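Risk register update: the risk of archive-format incompatibility is retired. Evidence:
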Amino acid sequence: MHTGLMVPLSSPGVLRSLVEASSSGVSVLSLCEKGDAMIMEETGKIFKKEKEMKKGIAFPTSISVNNCVCHFSPLKSDQDYILKEGDLVKIDLGVHVDGFIANVAHTFVIGVAQGSQVTGRKADVIKAAHLCAEAALRLVKPGNQNTQVTEAWNKVAHSFNCTPIEGMLSHQLKQHVIDGEKTIIQNPTDQQKKDHEKAEFEVHEVYAVDVLVSSGEGKAKDAGQRTTIYKRDPSKQYGLKMKTSRAFFSEVERRFDAMPFTLRAFEDEKKARMGVVECAKHELLQPFNVLYEKEGEFVAQFKFTVLLMPNGPMRITSGPFEPDLYKSEMEVQDAELKALLQSSASRKTQKKKKKKASKTAENATSGETLEENGAGD
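Archived output:
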């Protein structure tokens, strides 16, 4: 796992730069390009002697605004989105070194100055999603079940009159695998509850915990926006008929293995757009569709990568969350959940047998744990 520990050095640093660069009048396409370029640049600086080692993007920079749920990462030929004052922005990206993956996502509002606060539904949904992530950090630990996390997420979101996005999954991470077999499901339908496998977390596992919460009903739909992010499905084989598709697919296999990639990464975007069609049709590639909640609603996302160490969970990625910027009239009422959120998430205090369930709830929601303080820059 040695190389994996280098990964977080780049992902929160890239994320922080993108948050700082996001302001009214800035294009989403330009930010996505900047994020991907920075990931390549940062990972290019390490393990230079290991010529064969692959490293770089584990999830292309996606910037989904307001009611857009996820995976918005436009091509040059797509309609861009220009950020404006008051937009709720979700930045999602992933980095890998030698196949060891670190994913991170963060939500913030454009143009909120120090001293002012976000209120109303934007504040509700951001607080709810952030507290869901904080609850998960304390529940994703050896011996616990994935269903405990699902239940906590529903309770936290509902206390802010919000809803987790239905059926979204958080995955176990393995070397070269972004979608491992163990998962945590959000807000499952009755059918999904039956089908979803219960799992127990174990020591030394790694998870990308991905929280997506909506101010609305929590149903994400494909609104026909072009899909630009795909990943190879290694279990599928098919003899491609078109020359363009074959050339495109061999480049995918050579450059990305089974990591998600964006069509923006190809020199000839037009050929990539043509080549992907046959590959996706025959399921050689899995699409990451751009999804939307109803117009007028807001969706917030927080994602972090956590290593399940023998002495407690170690979060290796997180965003620069500032709890004081968000003022909601609502709060978590459930006594058990409140106690959970007030408990310390740092590994050292767990070792000393709950030294104190110290730090107030507000501290528990500040989004920083001891092990992260050095991880981001």
